[in-house]
Design goal:
12-stranded antiparallel barrel, alpha+beta, 2 domains
Length: about 350
């Protein structure tokens, strides 16, 4: 009887610990959003490789974002202290529109076979990231700039094991067995700076070409990349700046104000470091070799109506398959992504 009592109390304690950590994440998110922020949009983004028939690599990402928007007809929101270290790099020109975005998200990475308790050393390590990102977006009719800062935690504290096992149990999928080999707990950060330009627009306004450049620096990832996005649709000028949120995973490119568009894009760049493949920064952990150059492809559809917007896309974050472990990684970079946004 005493044993049953102790066992029951242990189970309750473990369950409450998970709930407490989840509630603590939500509490920290609410504290990170300034009290004077006039939030008027919200979005939920789901990345999952099951959209493309896989269950490995970049296995899942879930992001909840809040937006404080404005345009020239009203007082523009100013940047928050989170992005203050990057504001020197933003243009001096007064923007026609501005947005503060606040995102909390969780990402998970798994090896090619989740049914193995101890994966091979050359497999992508199990890892999870729980992070908060503040992005400031300054928009003109021809170009837009983004400054962003991310802080978070990698390791068991990011709750990747609990989240994946819960979802797999819910949908009847295989239980992932190798989470005991995941990266260790580590506080992580990333500074990011991006720009996009409307390089060309058709006479009808239904086609445009967007070019972009992004720089990331931090323990999560340090990288540089540039790319091109081609869009076809309606009211394109109102939504082109939202493509900057894709690289920060704040949300997918979103149509607004009754507009819609089809899009396809290519990104190319170089990764100097990333914790999901390099392993923990300050201690020994699992890691793999990989090609630092990358070429990524995306294609999707964004549609808006009244006070809502929906985007779906299919991505391959690296189509290069050469060198050590690239055949292993080739199918681990493909995933589908869905964003639903609404005015609050």
């Amino acid at each position: 009887m005493a044993f049953n009592y102790i066992f029951d109390r242990l189970i309750i304690k473990m369950f409450c610990s998970k709930i407490t950590r989840a509630c603590l994440s939500v509490l920290l998110f609410s504290l990170a959003v300034p009290a004077n922020a006039e939030l008027d949009w919200m979005s939920v983004t789901l990345d999952n490789d099951l959209f493309v028939g896989n269950d490995n690599g970049y296995s899942n990402g879930l992001y909840v974002s809040l937006f404080d928007t404005g345009d020239s007809s009203e007082e523009l929101p100013s940047h928050d202290f989170w992005v203050l270290p990057l504001m020197w790099s933003m243009p001096d020109e007064k923007p026609e529109g501005a947005v503060n975005a606040y995102m909390i998200g969780q990402t998970m990475n798994t090896p090619s076979d989740i049914n193995i308790i101890v994966p091979d050393e050359d497999e992508l390590p199990y890892s999870a990231l729980l992070a908060f990102t503040n992005s400031y977006l300054a928009v003109t009719s021809e170009y837009a700039d983004r400054a962003g800062v991310t802080i978070g935690v990698v390791g068991p504290a990011a709750l990747g094991e609990e989240a994946q096992k819960f979802v797999h149990d819910l949908i009847g999928a295989d239980e992932p067995l190798g989470w005991d080999t995941q990266l260790e707990n580590e506080l992580v950060f990333q500074f990011s700076r991006g720009s996009t330009w409307r390089a060309w627009e058709s006479d009808t306004g239904h086609f445009d070409f967007l070019t972009n450049a992004d720089v990331n620096l931090g323990t999560i990832q340090s990288a540089v990349n540039g790319g091109l996005t081609i869009r076809y649709g309606r009211d394109l000028i109102s939504s082109y700046a939202t493509t900057l949120y894709n690289s920060s995973r704040t949300s997918n490119p979103s149509a607004v104000a009754g507009g819609w568009f089809l899009f396809t894009g290519v990104q190319a760049g170089y990764i100097f470091n990333q914790i999901f493949t390099d392993g923990n920064t300050f201690r020994d952990s699992r890691s793999i070799d990989y090609e630092h150059e990358f070429i990524g492809l995306t294609a999707g559809l964004a549609y808006s109506w009244q006070n809502f917007s929906l985007t779906f896309a299919v991505n391959d974050s690296n189509i290069i398959s050469k060198g050590n472990n690239q055949e292993t990684l080739k199918n681990l970079t493909q995933y589908g992504t869905l964003t639903f946004s609404w005015r609050i």
